[in-house]
Amino acid sequence: MFLIEKIKKFIFSILVITAILTWTAVYYAEAGNKALKVVFFDIGQGDSIFVETPSGHQVLIDGGPSSTVLSKLGRELAFYDRDLDMIILTHPDSDHLNGIVEVLERYNVDLILWTGIEHTTIAYQEFKNLINQKNIKTKIAMSGQIIELGQAVFYILWPSDNLENRTSYNINSTSIVAQLVYGESEFLFMGDAESRIETELIASDFGNLQSDVLKVGHHGSKTSTSLEFLKTIRPKASVISCGLKNKYKHPHENTLQNLQSINTKVFRTDLNGDVKMISNGENIHIKTGK
Ligand SMILES: [Zn+2]
Question: How far apart are the CA of 96 and the centre of ligand 1, in A?
């Protein structure tokens, strides 16, 4: 009898916990229905951006230089959530890749969008090994691709060719460039693409480049963010992802001047901390960590 009571209590506890988890999941799904969330993580010298679409799809664009991304992700995801719908590796430099290796070791990832470019580093080999071990679906990014995540859509604008197993003398300019559109809000993610690519994008016929938010290319280096490009994009807000007092001295004074001259509001992860943007499809609300 005593044992039966114990079993009954145990089953009841399980039911209560299940109900709480279900309702938490419902709450998160409903909260997700209302808005697009884009968080530019302050992860030091590098890039890492988290996107949650109104349909609840979760995407990580780059992982930054270290395991710092894990605590950042932990703050954005529910405690039981160990799944990401997509990871975009813009290019395999360590300040974009290293954190992704940490994430792949701990999270289930449905799809990795990458260029497949050759690059000889240990971290990149680890990344490829993890893809094989965990049997993760991959897709080679090329301009013209459209990835629909509910009402939010990624338009892939660069690279223009299939770079799988190819080598490049300038790995930055193999970066995946993508525009995320939800309603009337557009976010343009440049990776580390340089001005040559900006010129190609302007000249190409990929559609409307104009975007409300620009993730400035290559951490604000002077090799990116030409005035001509900025006049095409006309961003209301621009985000520079760089480390505090980084050794490259990013962002460059020229880039800051270019941004100032088009009157865009500049956010810097080194000075502002995490930069969180919430769009309802019309307006974008911006919150900074510092
Ligand atoms: Zn970089």
Answer: 6
